[in-house]
């Protein structure tokens, strides 16, 4: 039981590193664009970032797994295209992959 809660340093350092990188990108965006009025093409490009990041995160899973995950990725991509909130996309993805794994096997 104590092994379950043991600290594995490579995992901990990876999580800390990802947290620092995430925080740094958010803060740098605020600092760089703090006094800039974002509109037009720049606004459209910045609005596309969350969808792009989500697709970059799920693409390896889509390419390395079976049909349920591939179908789920397509469904989530359509939801993201319609600019549903990110939390809704995540919930839709979780429900779809669980359901499709049960129906299609995998």
Please provide a written account of the structure.
Helices cover 76% and strands 0% of the residues. It contains five helices and no strands. The chain has two domains: 1-36; 40-106, no CATH class. It is flat. By secondary structure, it is mainly alpha-helical. It starts with 8 loop residues before the first helix and ends with a helix.
Short description:
The protein has 106 residues and is mainly alpha-helical.
Low-confidence stretches: none
* Structural class label: mainly alpha
The global form is flat
Domains, number:
2
Percent of residues in β-strands = under 5%
Main beta sheet strand tally, sense and closure: none
How many strand segments?
0
| Helical segment count | 5
Mean pLDDT: 84
Backbone CA Rg: 18 Å
- The H/E string reads HHHHH
Distance between the termini: 30 Å
Key features of this structure:
106 residues, mainly alpha, 5 helices, 76% helix, 0% strand, flat
Topology:
Elements: H1 9-32, H2 41-47, H3 49-64, H4 67-81, H5 86-104
């Amino acid at each position: 039981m104590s092994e379950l809660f043991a600290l594995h340093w490579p995992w901990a350092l990876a999580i800390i590193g990802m947290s620092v990188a995430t925080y740094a990108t958010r803060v740098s965006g605020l600092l760089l664009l703090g006094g800039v009025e974002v509109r037009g093409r720049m606004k459209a490009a910045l609005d596309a970032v969350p969808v792009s990041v989500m697709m970059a995160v799920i693409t390896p899973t889509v390419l390395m797994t079976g049909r349920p995950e591939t179908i789920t990725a397509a469904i989530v991509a359509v939801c993201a295209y319609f600019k549903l909130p990110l939390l809704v996309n995540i919930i839709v993805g979780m429900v779809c992959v669980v359901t499709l794994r049960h129906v299609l096997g995998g």
